Amino acid sequence: MHPQQPGSWGPPPGGQFPQQPIQQPYPQTQPGYPQAQPGYPQFQQQPPRKKRGKRIGLIVGISLGALVLLGGGGYLVTAYMKYSKPAGDPPTNAALPAECDLVSEQILQRLHVTNPDPTIIGEDPESGRSTCGWGPTEGRDGNNERTLRVDVRDVSKAADGTGAAEMFERFRDSGSGELQELSGLGDEAFLVARGPGGASEVNFRKGQKIVTVTYSGWDKNFLSSSTRISRAESGQAVKTVAKELVSKL
């Protein structure tokens, strides 16, 4: 028997061919996905990742942030408009009683009250009282509210016949607030201060006339409520006006 030549066909020695390893089938695809065609390898497909929720959350967060910024900016704009708005009204040109229209234009400008206030102005012949009042002129006297009031009582014209000294004593006894006697203003005078902030009032008597001067106001604040003017400012204002009036009565 001749030995088997290389490249010739036939069983190997021993008479049997070696067994080939059996290939395992590819794993089946997940339910709901199409099956691969026979004869082609099957690949396991991964479901798509869900990114939609993250994107929506990001968009919502950005939108809320923008709304907060817009709201804050709108609040600041509104607050600034209120803060910068001029105080007072357009010129009223209201007529003032001659008995109390004694405050100079220079002092009215210094106190930011150049506009006669018709809601204060008045006369009472029975008591002999004349009242003048001033407030800010819009666009001229700044952004803060101020009010000046002057009452002049000619006791000689009063119907009840009360003397000036007696009436002035009543004013002193009925005054509410911290009272301080003043010298150099007519025959007698005193200052009334009401609280740490607010209106101050000077009352003085010269002969048969009694004069009351009141000054009050509010200061605006940018991001908070308005506050009353200080006692020092209102006290100095009424003293300044009273000194001028004494010289003109």
TrEMBL record:
It comes from Saccharopolyspora hirsuta. Keywords: Membrane, Transmembrane, Transmembrane helix. Residues 16-47 have a biased composition (Low complexity). This is DUF3558 domain-containing protein. Residues 1-52, 115-144 are annotated as: Disordered. The chain crosses the membrane at residues 56-77. It comes from the Bacteria.
